[in-house]
Amino acid sequence: MKLTIKDIKGNAQGEWEVKFPVVEDGSGTQAVHDVVVAYRAAQRMGTACTKTMGEVNGSGKKPWRQKGTGRARAGSFASPLWRGGGVVFGPKPRDFSKKVSRNTRQLALRKALSERLRAGDVVLVDDFKLASGKTKEFVNLLNSLDMNGTTLIVSQGADKNLSLAARNVPFVALSTGDRLNTYEVLRSDKLVFTRSAFEQIEARLNKE
User: Fold this and answer.
1) Is 52 found in the same domain as 28?
2) Model pTM?
3) Which of 56, 73, 125, 177 could be joined to 197 by an S-S link, Cβ 3.0–4.6 Å?
4) What is the reported pLDDT for 27?
C-alpha cells in the first residue's frame, strides 16, 4: 500500500510505501473492541463513594423503645430507610482498568490503521513545522490540506508552536508517534502524520 507525501501547502512530493503488515482479512475486530473498551475504562476516575450504616455520622442509640409507642420498630438512626442513613450496596472507590496483552494492542492498532488507510483518511506530510504559535497560521495550513471534520495530527515529538496554535481549535487533537493508540486512530475523521511520526508507528508495529 502506498501513500502520497504532501508538503504543508498540499502539494504532492512523492510516494511512501507502508512498511508494516496491513491487516487484509476480517481479523483484528475483537482486538480493536477489547483495546477501546480497556482504554475508555481506564479513563474512569473510580472515585464514587457512599457511606454504609457504620460510616454515617450519628450515635448507636436506639431511637425509641421496641414496643408500646405505636410506631414501627427502629434500631438505629443510620438505617438505610431513614434520611441521612447509610446506603445499601452503594459504590465504593475502585479501579476500572482492564488488562490487555501487548500482542492484542499491536493487532488492534494495525487493524485500525489498516482500515483508515483503505478508507483514504490518512494524510502524510513531509513536516508540520510552524513559524509561530498563531492559530490563524495553523488553520490556514489545515485548509490547504483540505481537512474537514475532526482531525488528529501526529508528530514525532512535542512541538511547542503546534501545541499553542492548536489548543483553541476544538476539532483538532494532537498526538505523537510513540504514544498513538487505537482509540485516537478511530476517533477523528482525518489523520495527519508527519513522515518521521509515521516511521515511528511503523517501527512500533514491526516489533515482535
Assistant:
1) no
2) 0.83
3) 177
4) 87
Report the distance separating Cα 72 and Cα 34, nearest Å: 51
Q: Are strands 190-194 and 2-6 parallel, antiparallel or unpaired?
A: unpaired
79: pLDDT confidence band, cut at 50, 70 and 90? Answer: very high
| Number of compact structural domains in the chain | 2
CA angle 162, 165, 168 (to 5 degrees): 130
Closest CA to 204 of 13, 21, 12: 21
Residue 125's DSSP bridge partners are: 6, 194
Cα-based distances in Å from 40 to 36, 45, 98, 157: 6, 11, 10, 24
Instruction: Name the nearest CA neighbour of 155 among 114, 109, 191, 188.
Output: 191
Q: CATH number of the domain at 194, please.
A: 3.40.1370.10
Range of the domain at 53: 45-95
CA distance 109 to 3: 18
Tens of pLDDT, residue by residue over 158-170, are: 888 899 999 989 9
